[in-house]
Automatic annotation (TrEMBL):
<keyword id="KW-0732">Signal</keyword>
<protein>
    <submittedName>
        <fullName>Uncharacterized protein</fullName>
    </submittedName>
</protein>
<feature type="signal peptide">
    <location>
        <begin position="1"/>
        <end position="19"/>
    </location>
</feature>
């Protein structure tokens, strides 16, 4: 379930060609952090702050925010999916997870000026 959600997260983050991302955000720096569960690496492109250290600290805050919300969303959906037998209900749960992941990515960018650009397994 977590792997499927990670793929959805990557899709909603605009997992586009790297050149497009770099053209859209030419002044941003890339940062990668391990997920809380240690199963994934999340990569972000973040707006620069006063110093490189401040930018990295801000990127880490963005990661903690995204990782926390992402895990809560996936865990909640997994619990609901294990209890449901109706395919229509399962699809509704999956669509709700899609919407939550989209919001997580958008809110991370809005709050921290850090765009999630990639998720991969360790």
């Amino acid at each position: 379930m977590r792997a499927i959600a990670l793929v959805m997260l990557a899709l909603f983050a605009g997992c586009t060609d790297q050149a497009i991302i770099e053209a859209a955000f030419p002044d941003r720096e890339k940062y990668a952090f391990a997920s809380r569960d240690g199963e994934s690496i999340f990569t972000y492109t973040c707006a620069p702050k006063e110093t490189p250290e401040a930018t990295k600290a801000h990127a880490r805050e963005a990661h903690v925010y995204l990782d926390t919300r992402f895990n809560a969303a996936v865990d909640g959906a997994a619990e609901k999916l294990t209890a449901v037998e109706d395919q229509r209900r399962a699809r509704a749960i999956t669509r709700a997870l899609d919407a939550e992941i989209e919001d997580i990515v958008e809110q991370t960018e809005e709050r921290y000026e850090c765009l999630f650009i990639q998720g991969r397994d360790v």
